[in-house]
Amino acid sequence: MRFFAILSVAAVGLALTVKRDAATVEADVAKISAQVTTLDNAIVAFPQTGGSLVNALAIHTDATNLITTLNGAVVDVAATPQLSEDDGRTILSAVEAIEPTILDALTQIVVKKPAFQALPIGGLPALILQDLKNLKAATSSFANGLITIAPADLVDEATQLAQDITNAFDPAIAAYSS
């Protein structure tokens, strides 16, 4: 058992020392985009009445998968050197393309709150609140990492985008906090 613990620590250490590049970050953004779309589609498809616990828990699973991907992307960004102008613009554009889907998912999760509250499991709104908080934290960490490696002339634009996206979580978090 101790061997596996040592092996795990060594693997994590090795992962942290492996250099990443813009292509890795672009692939992360593409995966994040796909998972945001999956999450948004699941929330939109959840009915205003008569929804199932299985579908609600699938939304939780989608959120958890996205959090895991975002956290992995944070590690990749931290191991990526300063981006070139072209790579920085490509990545910023890809993140900008995700923003409307994120905003839709956050709007829809608020709209669907009564449907989640109506399900026979009382803790579901609290679970969604925790998912929202974790998603905001992971999104913020990823955005801050991207800002750190962005070319100087894109920092202001990236910072504004990051603020717009992370602030969009606040109404949803407030809705599920009450």
TrEMBL record:
<dbReference type="GO" id="GO:0005576">
    <property type="term" value="C:extracellular region"/>
</dbReference>
<dbReference type="InterPro" id="IPR021054">
    <property type="entry name" value="Cell_wall_mannoprotein_1"/>
</dbReference>
<protein>
    <submittedName>
        <fullName>Hydrophobic surface binding protein</fullName>
    </submittedName>
</protein>
<feature type="signal peptide">
    <location>
        <begin position="1"/>
        <end position="15"/>
    </location>
</feature>
<dbReference type="Pfam" id="PF12296">
    <property type="entry name" value="HsbA"/>
</dbReference>
<keyword id="KW-0732">Signal</keyword>
